[in-house]
Write a structure and sequence with these properties.
Layout lengths: L22 H14 L4 H13 L1 H8 L2 H5 L44
Length: 113
């Protein structure tokens, strides 16, 4: 009897819902992150405009999957994709709507990554 071959790769799915209390602070932090990156002028202008016009886009610049796993011993991040979007959220709902779009996750476009 042979043992089945096991993949060395593990997919971790994380879904977060953040309440934005200060959109200006989020945009300012994203602008700071953009300022630290070496981007061509046109790309920098596009990114700055995007994060000041859309808080979800600003969050996509600030939340980095590598920050979650970068220090996990024995691992290398092979691939990451993430997106941010405004959603209707009812904190009084028993499940809060988490995981409802799991079937569509493979079709999502990357915002950054």
């Amino acid at each position: 009897m042979s043992t089945p071959e096991t993949s060395r790769f593990v997919r971790i799915r994380v879904e977060l819902v953040l309440e934005i209390g200060d959109a200006g602070a989020v945009a300012e932090a994203a602008l700071g992150r953009i300022a630290e990156e070496s981007l061509p002028a046109g790309e920098r202008a596009y990114a700055e405009r995007a994060v000041t016009e859309d808080t979800a886009e600003a969050l996509a610049y600030l939340v980095d999957p590598f920050d979650l796993v970068g220090d996990v011993p024995g691992t290398d991040l092979a691939q990451a994709s993430w997106s941010a979007e405004r959603v209707d959220y009812d904190p009084d709902s028993p499940d809060g709507g988490l995981g409802e779009d799991d079937a569509d996750e493979d079709d999502e476009d990357d915002v950054r990554g």
